[in-house]
Amino acid sequence: MPFVNWLKRNLVVIAGLLTLGYLLLPNVIVTVFSFNKPKGRFNYQWQQFSLDAWKDPCGVSDLCGSLSVSLQIAVWATLGATLLGTLIAFALVRYRFRARGAVNSLIFLPMAMPEVVMAASLLTLFLNMGAQLGFWTILIAHIMFCLSFVVTAVKARVMSMDPKLEEAARDLYAGPFQTFVRVTLPIAAPGIAAGALLAFALSFDDFIITNFNAGSTVTFPMFVWGSAQRGTPVQINVIGTTMFVVAVLLVLASMAVGNRRNRQKA
Amino acid sequence: MSTLTEAPPPLAPEAPEPKPPQRRGRWTPYWLLLPGILWLVVFFALPMIYQASTSVQTGSLEEGYKVTWHFATYWDALSAYWPQFVRSVLYAGTATILCLLLGYPLAYLIAFRAGRWRNLIMILVIAPFFTSFLIRTLAWKTILADGGPLVGALDTLHVLDVTDWLGWTAGDRVLATPLAVVCGLTYNFLPFMILPLYTSLERIDGRLHEAAGDLYARPWTTFRKVTFPLSMPGVVSGTLLTFIPAAGDYVNADLLGSTDTRMVGNVIQTQFLRVLDYPTAAALSFILMAAILLMVTLYIRRSGTEDLV
Q1: Residue A180 main-chain phi, psi, to 5 deg
Q2: What fold characterizes domain A64-232?
Q3: Nearest residue of B to residue A191 by CA position?
Q4: CATH number of the domain residue B124 falls in
Q5: Nearest residue to A228 (alpha-carbon basis) of A41, A33, A30
Q6: What ipTM, to 2 d.p.?
Q7: What would the pLDDT profile of B262-280 be if each residue is shown by its tens digit?
Q8: Rounded Cα–Cα distance for residues A129 and A140 (Å)
Q9: What pLDDT digit, counting tens, does each position of B27-75 carry?
């Protein structure tokens, strides 16, 4: 029975592709419904094809404002978390120091804690200090939870670095600063870039922690959350679709550049 | 939310770390650590202490709160909200098992069978992260809509009769039922299972499979005796990375569920942001944190702190 044999051999492939379909189905729906013209306030049922939302992505009040708040916070949070996280990663890989276990745990725990716990406890801190909730409290929170992920990404890269390269630079009379800028940093760069990208994605998409600590500031995820109660404009889907397409294109482009470099080296 | 192939999932085991060389500058590591660690101490650890203190305070918004060591708050919170706690564990547990069952074949496919499609599939697993997860969760409202094609098909195949009997769905609806919430949780946290699984599967030496085959092991036996045991680190970290955020989640229960599917996250959110009963909310959050810390500690006992970050 060739068919049954084929099925047996490829069962895992079929199951895997089904899972992939499950993962991608919502994105398909988001894209298709960005061309919808809903009758009521909610964009959950297909009515008819329309380009209205694509022609006027900022047509809903506050939508693009919230998007710009989210982008600003994401950029600053990425810069902050990447800087602090990279320093920690270098310390962890390159040096021996006391309280190593405690430092490891402190970096790991934010990744293991449910967001709602961090969100609630941070709010108690801000309330106790009498801090004004808004842009700055969101930024502080985002740097806090992005930090650990940057450390993980950079640490992995720095660990796989050959220390002999830096020794060679020193042997060739490069000073510590020159060695760091000309040798260490370029080799660590992919790890730092991966960490930064991760931080950006996490910050931009964060809802739970932001929702607790935002005060009256509205980020893009908070706008979407609010619209789930009030009525979902089609423009949300337009932005979701654009983000997906841009992300895929960026990754494909970076892979193409990487491939070409590899070929040039070979 | 680990993305990118470059970033290994936080819990994935690494080769035992070589002792870092002692360098000149005894204080250098401390200066490097200082700003980041200070940030985490002030904005992560300190808030936990504030929260613990809030949970044993009494008072009111108008008159202010005082620490009175009122531990009864814990008892009251637990007796009032134990169904939400049980539900959280139940939903998150089910979602975690589903993630493992769904994610394993895909991770296996990417690691061993994808060939030149490997990168593309990897991108497709990661890329949805860049569309806001709230938008994607809302899309499930369309997919599971009453009278929609999927619910219609499940109804025709009498699947809904079975799930209705089990109490997972109600009548011919899927939305606003436990099934919808578990489906959303599974969907949202599936990549957290796939990435660590993939990382540990990819490390397996292909020759071990060949060796098992040479010794007349059938494919299933090879999987059971070789592949699966070697992927255990990925299974453990994937399970933690899925279960922990799922247990604290309130977005899925809110968007896809009903008042009968409220999880502990929903209660904490309502108490904190709407009812403004801070002690109760802090106590609930503290119990959730303690439960999670217990799990993590058991894991650290097993594998040490170096594997964590």
Answers
A1: -65, -45
A2: MetI-like fold (1.10.3720)
A3: B6
A4: 1.10.3720.10
A5: A41
A6: 0.89
A7: 999 999 999 999 888 889 9
A8: 14
A9: 888 999 999 999 999 999 999 999 999 898 887 777 778 788 888 889 9
